[in-house]
UniProtKB/TrEMBL annotation:
Keywords: Ligase, Membrane, Transmembrane, Transmembrane helix. The keyword Nucleotide-binding does not apply. The keyword Membrane applies. It is a multi-pass membrane protein. It is found in: Membrane. This is O-antigen ligase. GO terms for molecular function: ligase activity. Its main location: membrane. One of its GO terms (cellular component) is membrane. Pfam families: Wzy_C (PF04932).
Length: 385
């Protein structure tokens, strides 16, 4: 991107500030306050320049989610879940309408700093509480956006951004990128997250393949495999042991979501209804003996696609596909792609894989991450022209 750098405007400043503070345990949500102030200033300063048709996927999805609130058996909880999409939507609108392409590298540094900030916080928490388990570390960290160990998959989704920065970073800046990669690697092993290892492999592999760096791909995957094995061995092969444990515990969750969808295929049961109807649609006696049934009540389906089908039906699911596919289609048609555009696609690939096994769109960081990625894809269609 051969665009002359200039200080970020109010839109960029609000985005950067929110991303760096959204998960911190602060007495008030300073990030949201800063985002609102900066976003308002940007909106009053000049008109947005939305790229057609990339932005057309957002309104139908928000309408379907709003309709889901009306249909939900617990409308209070549904409205509370929808609130998580407000800052994410604001980020998307600022990226798609106001963000200047020249600041993409700055945003990549902000996301790298986010990995170092929140990831480092989680590492320090684990070090300070050696006798506790990963779920207890997540609670002890106090980070508002993290609830389970697999939430560290956020950092694996963001891995392409420090990778993209490595190519043009100066000697003194490279250590920040390498530090971010090391933090993700350490978190994967210490928090024993199979999903984070899988998504890291997908994001790194996709980025290097798109960038045409096949030799770096082989070296990167080899380094990842050896490092994980060595670190896991030092810690007693706890992560490796999880790969040998049962893999079927999510099947009852997915089966429940599928049954809910079949019962209301058009509009679904409403936003957040999975928690309310989970026991009603799942009978452990119907499950084969080889499927492990977790007695705990699970708030989400651990599969974003099935959860959308269950809660918002085909209408919501198709609107979600439009939300993601329109910006991606436009970006793929973009004539000249830099490493940052490849990072957008690799991050979306990692998100899509993580969504198969864990994510729920009503989680704070999930909607924020998705709308940040597709907002960046949309902004690249017009900025810098």
């Amino acid at each position: 991107m051969n665009l002359k750098w200039k200080p970020p405007g109010s839109a960029e400043s609000g985005i950067f500030f929110y991303l760096l503070t959204f998960a911190l345990p602060l007495p008030i949500d300073l990030g949201l306050l800063g985002l609102a102030v900066c976003g308002s200033h940007a909106a009053l300063s000049r008109a947005p320049r939305f790229s057609y048709p990339a932005w057309l996927g957002l309104p139908p999805f928000l309408l379907s989610a709003g309709l889901g609130c009306l249909l939900s058996p617990d409308q209070t909880r549904a409205l509370h879940l929808m609130l998580a999409l407000i800052p994410a939507t604001m980020i998307y609108l600022l990226l798609a309408g106001y963000f200047e392409r020249r600041h993409t590298s700055t945003l990549a540094w902000v996301l790298t700093a986010l990995i170092l900030d929140l990831g480092g916080w989680l590492l320090i928490t684990a070090i300070l509480h050696p006798g506790q388990s990963p779920p207890e570390w997540v609670i002890a960290s106090g980070l508002t956006a993290f609830r389970v160990p697999n939430d560290i998959v956020l950092f694996a989704i963001l891995l392409p951004f420090p990778l993209a920065l490595l190519d043009g970073a100066g000697h003194r800046s490279r250590w920040l990128c390498w530090s971010a990669l090391a933090v993700v690697l350490l978190l994967t092993v210490i928090y024993r997250s199979r999903l984070t290892l899988l998504v890291s492999t997908v994001t790194v592999g996709t980025f290097f393949l798109l960038a045409g760096k096949r030799w770096q791909l082989l070296r990167g995957l080899a380094f990842l495999a050896v490092s994980v094995l060595v670190l896991d061995g030092v810690l007693g092969f706890r992560l490796s042991g999880k790969f040998l444990s049962t893999w079927s515990s999510r099947l009852p969750l997915w089966l429940t979501a599928w049954r809910m969808f079949l019962d209301a295929p058009g509009l679904g049961h409403g936003t957040g209804s999975y928690l309310s109807l989970y026991r009603q649609y799942l009978d452990p006696a119907d499950l084969p003996a080889w499927i492990v049934f977790d007695q705990r009540l699970t708030p989400w389906a651990h599969n974003l696609y099935l959860e959308l089908l269950a809660e918002l039906g085909l209408v919501g699911f198709l609107s979600f596909l439009g939300l993601v596919s329109l910006p991606l289609r436009n970006l793929l048609a973009f004539p000249e792609k830099s490493l940052f555009e490849y990072a957008f696609i690799a991050a979306l690939a990692g998100f899509s894989i993580a969504a198969l096994f864990e994510l729920s769109l009503w989680r704070q960081w999930v909607g924020l991450t998705l709308l940040t990625i597709i907002g960046l894809m949309s902004s690249d269609q017009h900025c810098g022209q």
